[in-house]
Here is the input.
Amino acid sequence: MTKTSGVLGAITILLIAHLLLAAEIQNDNLVVSSLNIVETKRTLLPNETNPKCPSNYFLDTESLQCTSECSQDMFISKKTCVKSCPPDSYITEDRNCVTSCPSSQPYIDIVQDYKICRSNCPSWKPFKDGRLCVAQCNPYQWLDLDNNECHYGCPKDKPLRDGRICRHQCPSYRVQDGENCLDTCPSNKFLLNSTFCTSSCPQDMVYDGQVCRYHCHGKFRVTLNYQSPVCVETCPPSKPLLDGETCVDQCPAGKKQHNNTCVEFCPAEAPYNLNNQTCVSECPERLALAGFDCVDRCPNNTVLYNRACRTRCDFSEAPLIDGGKCASKCSSKRPYIVISGQPFIQTCVSQCPSYWPYVYQSICRSSCPDYTYRSGNLCLDACPSNSVIYGRECLDSCPKGTFISDQLYDGNANCVLACPSGRNNGTHCIAIDKPKPSTTPTPSIEPATNHKNSSSCTIQDVAALINNVCLEKCFAGCAQNCSL
Here is the structure.
């Protein structure tokens, strides 16, 4: 009986072990197959000391089950759902236990014994002492309101201290004294520009009680005996002139005196006198008016007309510029006229410039008009009576290789290259018929020279002299005019 009982016990133990092994294999298969479903829980075996859940599951230390998410009253620590994080741990906003807060949640909010990581401090602890969220800064700190940070000294970009607050500038209702914002300046300082406290006013300002001002509010500023400038009702006799709001003994450079006042520009009724820096009603006889100034010489690009400097002359009365003055005609020192610019400016000159070398009717030109004759640099309507015409030039005699024509042109002899039928005496053409005065220009290759005077005619060369032209012989009907 005892032997039979022992065998049955062994069999029973083997059956139980087999069933347990089969159950474990079945549970493992269920866990593996559960990877494709939403949530699966597995009860741990009593002897499991180092259980492992699938990668996307957490171990619940309370129920000893694998779960896809921890309950809201638990925290996550190394893929495990726990009731509390390990000591010195931090808790992120998604309930993870970490050794330090991540950069996305850099601020620490201490609630009871928990150190919670936050992306920003909560409204009930809005200020930041380093990375710690606090309800207010400690008594030794100043607050930067722009980012709610507590500092043991105000930062460089907000150096001013308004109570326990750091500011870039003091509020409009406060004044700045050094690095502090105050209600009023200390008794030993002065208010500048309604904003700053200063130990002394700038040189361009005056003292008005404890206030530095640019203006005296209806009064005048004066400095006496090297004292600081003060405000007065009227200027004292030692400084009778008023320059703006300042009493002075003489007007500064660049200003003029007018009715005991220093002005930059004289009024229209009293143009400025350069000699004594005083505005007067008119310039002295020896000076001219240039704008608001009396001058002894007009500035460049201006001309003098009727004791005033102008940019141009009056075309109807005095259109010419002669020596910087407007004139109706040029003087003997500057007899020629140069016309330039738009509108035309007519300037008298002593001689024409090289680019306008010719003169016609007193005007300098680049060339003579087609209807005139040229004599040197002069353009003439007609050549002088004692000259000959060569082309459009007036000459004393015909050039070498030309002859004096036997016909006159505009009262002058004309120079030609050849005489008709070779009739010449070496220098003159010998006329056969009576020459007829020409009323229109006779084409000629070269200009003319003087007629041959009768005194130069010889009996061997000519038979008669008519109209100051030596002829080879008299022609019919002119005997009464011929003289040998």
